[in-house]
Amino acid sequence: MRKKVSIIGSGNVGATTALFALQSGIADVVLLDIVEGIPQGKALDMAEACPLWDISSEIKGTNDYADTAGSDIIVITAGFPRKPGMSRSDLLHANANVVKASCREIAKSSPNAIIIVVTNPMDVMAQLAWKTTEFSCKRVMGMGGILDASRLTSFISWELQVAPEDIEALVLGGHGDDMIPLSRFTSVKGIPLTELMPKRKIESLIERTKKGGAEIVHLLQTGSAYYAPAAATFHMIKAILLDEKRLLPCSAYLNGEYGVRDLYMGVPVIIGKDGIEKIIEVKLSREEKTRFRKSSSSVRRLIKILSI
Ligand code: APR
After folding, report:
1. Which helix (H) or strand (E) holds 234?
2. What is the atom index within ligand 1 of the atom nearest the CA of 10?
3. Residues 6+ apart with CB under 8 A from 44
4. Strands (E), 36-154
5. Which pLDDT tens digit goes with each residue over 284-300?
6. Could you give the angle at the alpha carbon of 142 between the alpha carbons of 63 and 113, nearest 5°?
7. From ligand 1's centre to the CA of 12, what distance in Å?
8. CB 180 within 8 A of CB 292
9. At residue 183, what are phi and psi to the nearest 5 degrees?
10. Distances (CA, A) of 118 to 68, 139, 144, 290
11. Cβ–Cβ < 8 Å for 249, 267
12. Ligand 1 nearest-atom number relative to CA 14
């Protein structure tokens, strides 16, 4: 029997993640949205492409959580983009209501699922999903670091004209303005980046990574990035379903690791069939620790506003 992946929210990120998951042939997919017709229409469109990919995986569009029952993985992308006149705090409350309502349904219909949270502010929404479902923290994680690391990898690859698969990049911290791309742990086939590029160039690529989301919002004018976010989300889905034991930067529940307690933050973890199978703790320099603390304070501030 194929595994079942349900995606909550059939907008840009949700539908594109569904497409990648379906096309891989490793799972059947359920696409859910609050708006009637959208998930059904997008799912039908994708289903009609399957014969061209020679795959027999199935996709169903729905507005009913009953169709997601028994999912192995649930991806939460539902929410609202920031609209003119809306403060970050308004957005925070609006998305928190969506994620909370969704998690109540998930806990009932898919009690054994692993949840991947994508809705922003992601680390905060991951914490909310964990609290609402009361699932083991190993089964609730957030997508952020893989996307940020992929962006940094792309910029390094273009700059050095070297294949991206030879580049290893690591990004820690919250998935926001205070993310911490770590050049010290970034290398090309084991050669530290600092030996291949001047410090100032590295800093400019890190700066571009931090503003990676904003750069795309600026170009698109309406909406935000979705191809790379969906690819990063599918990377996590694949690592879980195929029990790959990949070491990936994801938002995970920290309870003392990195000196942070009771908070979701981006750290390197090993991902496999059980979800977050291990948190990898790397020794940070004093300056990196300060940045990590600053990043965690930003996430904690939002958690307090929501009284999670
Ligand atoms: N239940 C289900 N779906 C919902 C609900 C709800 N309560 N509320 C909103 N949605 C749906 C919307 O109808 C829309 O189809 O969520 C979808 C969001 O899609 P987009 O607006 O296209 O947003 P997208 O670009 O996909 O981003 C989704 O991922 O990367 C993050 O910051 C991004 O938080 C955002 C999320």
Report:
1. helix 227-241
2. 15
3. 61
4. 59-62, 73-76, 114-117, 140-142
5. 999 999 999 999 999 99
6. 55
7. 8
8. yes
9. -65, -30
10. 18, 14, 8, 26
11. yes
12. 26
- Token reading at 170: 């690591």
Asked whether 149 and 156 are in contact (CB, 8 A), the reply is: no
**Mean pLDDT score across all residues of the chain:** 95
CB within 8 Å of 46: residues ≥ 6 apart:
18, 19, 22, 29, 59
Return the bridge partners of 140, or none. Answer: 115
Statement: residue 200 has pLDDT above 90: yes
What's the confidence (pLDDT) of residue 292? 93
**Annotated catalytic, 175?**
yes
pTM: 0.97
Per-residue burial over 32-52, b if 16 or more Cβ lie within 10 Å, else e, is: bbeeeebbbebbeebbeebee
Q: pLDDT confidence of 88, banded at 50, 70, 90?
A: low
Using most ligand atoms within 8 A of CB, pick from 7, 12, 125, 148 the residue to mutate for ligand 1. 12
Name the β-bridge partners of 279. Answer: 269
Task: Write down the residue that tokens 């070491």 correspond to.
Answer: 247
Q: What are 209-214's contacts with CB under 8 Å, separation 24+?
A: 209/148, 209/151, 209/152, 209/155, 209/171, 209/179, 209/181, 210/177, 210/179, 210/181, 212/147, 212/148, 212/151
> What is the reported pLDDT for 289?
92
- Of the listed ranges 2-11, 76-85, 204-213, the one predicted with least confidence: 76-85
Alpha helices, H only, 25-87: 38-47, 50-53
182: confidence class by pLDDT, cuts 50, 70, 90: confident
In tens, the pLDDT along 147-177 reads 999 999 999 999 999 999 999 999 999 888 7
Token pair in block for residue 296: 């965690």
Q: Which of 83, 20, 81 is nearest to 46 (CA)?
A: 20
